[in-house]
Amino acid sequence: MFGRRPPNADLNTRSRSRVQPAAEARTNVPETVAAKPIEPAPATGIDDIAHALAMQKGAQSRSAAEGNRDEILAEVLERIDASTAVRLSREDLQSQLGGLVSEILLERRIVLGQREQQDLTRQLVDEMVGFGPLEPLLNDETVTDIMVNGPSKVYVERAGKLTLTDVNFRSNAHVMNVAQRIVSRVGRRIDESVPLVDARLPDGSRVNIIAPPLALDGTSISIRKFSQKKITLDVMARQKNLSNPMATTLKIAAASRLNILVSGGTGSGKTTLLNALSRMIDIGERIVTIEDAAELQLQQPHVVRLETRPMNIEGRGEITMRDLVKNALRMRPDRIILGEIRGEEAIDMLQAMNTGHDGSLSTVHANSSREALIRIENMISMGGHSMSERGLRTQIANAIDMIVQIERMRDGIRRITQVSEVLGLEGDVILMQDLFTFDYGGALHEGRLVGDFRYTGLRPAFLKKAGYFGYDRVLLAALNETAQ
């Protein structure tokens, strides 16, 4: 009876037979999985003609598989017990669907190679319990970002470079269906009345979806994948994202409870660097993290993670970043980590940094260390605060100790280009000094920019504070080694 079978029950409601296609029928079928038909090359001889005909036959086989996929999917959905399917593990579902697909192919007299049949079954499982065509990209560890610009334009970022893939959706409706599946898992919705949504996948990957009528060419999905690798400053140094002396300096700055602001453009690696800095926080400290979409990977045991909430369909229930920052101050945190400063919550973050929450961390979108301070000042001013310009800059100068500028350069590699200290206020100007910079000549050698991480030779202003925590000698040793 519908819905009454045990979880390991057979999914097929029409037939209990599990007839596999005869092995002989699959022996000589091309086993290719390319998404687009391959045009045969111009033939110049008998061997070329034979090769072209073989490729054309393979392309026709793939076209047949693509053309029958939707029909087979509809047939599978008609035959299975949906209530049983949702209770099965992915592996069990794929195993049972494999038998059912074999049966349908045999009935329809469709001959597919074993690999093509397995791919078809996997695609069906992805459609039923996964994210459709995006599943292979989500499982590819080399992919860091996925950008869907309509059904036939899916881009990915690998090693800092964007490339167009051969992944396709069936239609705009198919893209919207996958988008709705993504947001429904976090209790949100996407449609014409709510066409803009931020969400996250079960693995923590951050998702932004914008749908018509705001997206004119169809639903757009942007996924910033959640890295499973635990990035540290040492790993970043080995990857040439920064130099070893820079890594040592940043480790000591974070361990010495400096208030650090990470600045950079979109996709420059701000959150990755923030995660790396957070690893220097002592395990005995209480940390409160505040984010729009949770993606920080803190390793300490005493962490309270807070996440904003958008308004509901009635326009109520919104919890903003500023609400959470204010609440965090009542939670007795040792450190507050704000995923990104975007608006009027900047003033609350500065006040937290100025009232005993040393060692707090945050990020901001800016193209230089100086611009990061200007952006924070503008955010506070736009929030309607009636503070004098000098008073506001005094707050900023007293709150922020260090700004770390990170940039994704044209060779695709993310590098820390500035490590700057905030020294204080002189007149109406916030004084800063660069400890490290990245100097590059603009030339490419073996695909990489030629350049050097350079220590400016200036004595760190936080040396005394580093000494309080017992790190002054280590810091001086690292800087002296760089200067030699």
Q: Examine the secondary-structure arrangement and name the CATH architecture of the largest domain.
A: 3-Layer(aba) Sandwich
Q: Name the overall outline.
A: elongated
Number of helices: 16
Described by strand count, sense and barrel closure, the largest sheet is: 9 strands, mixed
State Rg: 28 Å
Number of strands: 15
Spatial strand arrangement across the major sheet: 9-8-10-11-7-12-13-14-15
Looking at CATH, the homologous superfamily of the largest domain is P-loop containing nucleotide triphosphate hydrolases
Would you tell me the structural class of the helices and strands?
A: alpha/beta
Helix percent reads 25-40%
Strand content: 15-25%
The average pLDDT value, as a whole number, equals 81
Number of domain modules: 3
CATH class of the largest domain: Alpha Beta
Notes on the structure:
The chain has 484 residues and is α/β, with parallel strands linked by helices. The chain has 3 domains: 23-129, no CATH class; 135-224, Beta-Lactamase, CATH 3.30.450; 233-483, 3-Layer(aba) Sandwich (Rossmann fold), CATH 3.40.50. It has 16 helices and 15 strands. The strands form 2 sheets. A 9-stranded mixed beta sheet has the order 9-8-10-11-7-12-13-14-15, sandwiched between helices. The termini are far apart.
